[in-house]
Model the fold of this input.
Amino acid sequence: MINSHQINRCLFPVAGYGTRFLPATKAIPKEMLPILTKPLIQYGVEEAISAGINAMVMVTNKHKSAIKNHFKPHLDIEASIKGSAKESLLDEINHIINQCTFTYTEQQQMLGLGDAIYSGRMLIGNETFAVILADDLCVNKGDSVLQQMSELHKKYPDCCIVAIEQVPMSEVDKYGVIAGELLEKNVYQVINMIEKPNPKDAPTNLAIIGRYILSADIFPALENTKVDKNGEIQITDALLSLAKKGKVIAYQFQGKRFDCGSVKGFVSATEHFAKNLILRTI
Done:
């Protein structure tokens, strides 16, 4: 029997230039920057797999061939380490390559996250899908964030779901911020969403982070979303139109997020994983 609530595809918006990490990202995609020995994009794909998803949709640009190459076999390297102690180092990525399908489309212009998601519509089709922003690296002792959201989706199958966390009020101008009515522990019915509000205008300090479950309703909503003052199409604005119809849920997830789109967050994530590695080897 087919599970009608199973999410089959995860979209990764990876077309951005990662200018906060220049000059490193001049030739290396931001999503390929490693936390220890594993690139950010691989952590994201592994999280999607943890939620039972094996079809990955990459919205990229012409300069991001390294991402595509990472998720393809490299026969020369495999031959060079065959039979050595290093052979097992490729086990994780080869398992992903064998387990998943990867499709790619290019975002023609950098017009914001909403436009990036809309660019993937032909590869998604008319079904609910997940979105992971790879530079939001989430760690958990139990279920991954996307696993938690997938379980919630079974309870609210007709709604879009956004992951949220509390941030300092002084930092709300970096995020989309929600206001909502508490439905159950950590779950809100969204009644308002504001993209990067001035702290004095923010309704709450509940900020949206890079995990979404979106119904196919998001695509017509994005079509009707006007560009903002910076000429970008914001996913927050499109979701607000659905929230007004009672179709958006916000979930305060269990776990810890590292903002690896910033140098500070990237360093914190590296320190966290390095510390855990050291503890495992003691």
Observations:
- The two ends are 47 Å apart (CA to CA).
- The longest helix spans residues 263-281.
- Residues 160 and 248 are 5 Å apart (CA to CA).
- The chain is about 30% helix and 25% strand.
